[in-house]
Design goal:
The protein is mainly α. Helix content is about 75%, strand content about 0%.
């Protein structure tokens, strides 16, 4: 059974998005007096905690809605909210200054590595340590992995082997086609998840009451969380441009590798959702952990890539999607290990440790390629 949400009467739920919007107004006011100037040190250092708090607030409100709507609709609310945040951050960094045409690729790849190895590994390890083993629905996990494999290859591997464009890119026609088929794949998956085979994505011993349709009373309860979710997402989108400038300046000053930008964006986006998945595993709700984790990776490719592709095609910018050989090896290993560990229907600490080792390898190779 899905656990009940925490009490949402704290004034922080209103103050965080309101304060973030006010903070953005202050930045705009200061920038209007010095157009074209880089953000000052104080502003740059303040943006990250404000943005992080706003992202957490957005996911918190999405989780409130998720608890009211139940599974699997609740997970969809979370993943769509995260996707909006992700697109805003990617496009802000990609279009600022000289731009970074590989940021979308780095971010999508980072999301897959963080989700399929980092989050899944931690959830398996935590659940295994506390409960020895946890059950989950194999059919649901298989559906996630089948679609994830197809989307990963089409968007991150195929661009390296096309002949219509040079380098790890797709031509405009190919990019349009790939965007359409990724949307179709994700759309069919959503149909399976929410209509045709909902039982694949619910707890093995789920309470039938969790599937109760929404009534007028419950819809009224959702009005405040929905309004605050929209306000939080708006604040994230507005703050993302200034955050992008600060990230670029900070990484350039530190001499950090370019791939670190995508990792930081993915980490910022997934941090609140990762906490929710980890908490679910600790509460013996591993199916919910899977829905949160693997659902995020599917939404990232199925929604983020087409959105970024549409914007770059409209603006005439280039978009690098193909991974290098080292990253492709990590992606292949991740998909293979995930297929094996999710094919048993049960968890244990060994599977979690293997996923965490792959994740540690990915982190190490960012700094020592």
């Amino acid at each position: 059974m899905v656990s009940k949400p925490r009490s949402a009467t704290s004034p922080l739920r209103v103050l965080v998005p309101a304060g973030a919007l006010a903070f953005y107004g202050v930045i705009q006011f200061l920038g209007s007096n010095a157009p074209g100037a880089e953000p000052g040190l104080v502003i740059s250092l303040s943006i990250l905690p404000v943005l992080l708090a706003t992202v957490i607030a957005a996911v918190f409100h999405a989780e409130e809605i998720a608890h009211e709507t139940g599974e699997p609709y609740g997970t969809l609310v979370l993943t769509i909210a995260v996707t909006i945040i992700e697109v805003a951050l990617i496009m802000s960094i990609t279009l600022s200054g000289k731009g970074d045409p590989a940021l979308a690729r780095d971010t999508v790849f980072s999301v897959i590595m963080i989700v399929c190895n980092g989050i899944v590994g931690l959830c398996r390890l935590a659940g295994g340590l506390q409960y020895l083993e946890q059950d989950f629905e194999v059919k649901g996990a298989s559906a996630y992995l089948v679609v994830l494999t197809a989307l990963s290859v089409l968007t991150l591997i195929l661009p390296n082997y096309t002949r219509s464009s040079s380098g790890p890119t797709l031509s405009s026609g190919q990019l349009f086609f790939v965007s359409i088929v990724t949307l179709l794949l994700y759309g069919v998956f959503l149909y399976i998840q929410t209509v045709r085979h909902r039982e694949f994505f619910t707890e093995v011993d789920a309470d039938p009451e969790d599937a109760t349709p929404l009534g007028d009373a419950r819809l009224r309860v959702l009005r405040m969380p929905a309004a605050l979710l929209i306000a939080s997402l708006l604040a994230v989108v507005l703050l993302s441009k200034t955050f992008a400038v600060s990230v670029k300046a900070g990484l350039a000053y530190a001499g950090a590798p370019a791939a670190l930008s995508g990792f930081l964006v993915a980490l910022l986006i997934l941090l609140p959702e990762s906490v929710a998945a980890f908490r679910a595993a600790r509460m013996n709700e591993f199916q919910r952990s899977i829905n949160l984790a693997l659902g995020s990776s599917l939404a990232t490719i199925g929604l983020t890539v087409p959105a970024v592709a549409a914007i770059t095609l409209y603006l005439g910018h280039s978009l690098v999607l193909g991974l290098d050989s080292q990253a492709m090896v990590l992606l292949y290993v991740t998909l293979l290990i995930s297929t094996l560990t999710f094919g048993t229907g049960r968890t244990n600490i060994l599977y979690g440790f293997v996923h965490l080792i792959i994740f540690a390898t990915y982190i190490f190779l960012i700094f020592e390629p």
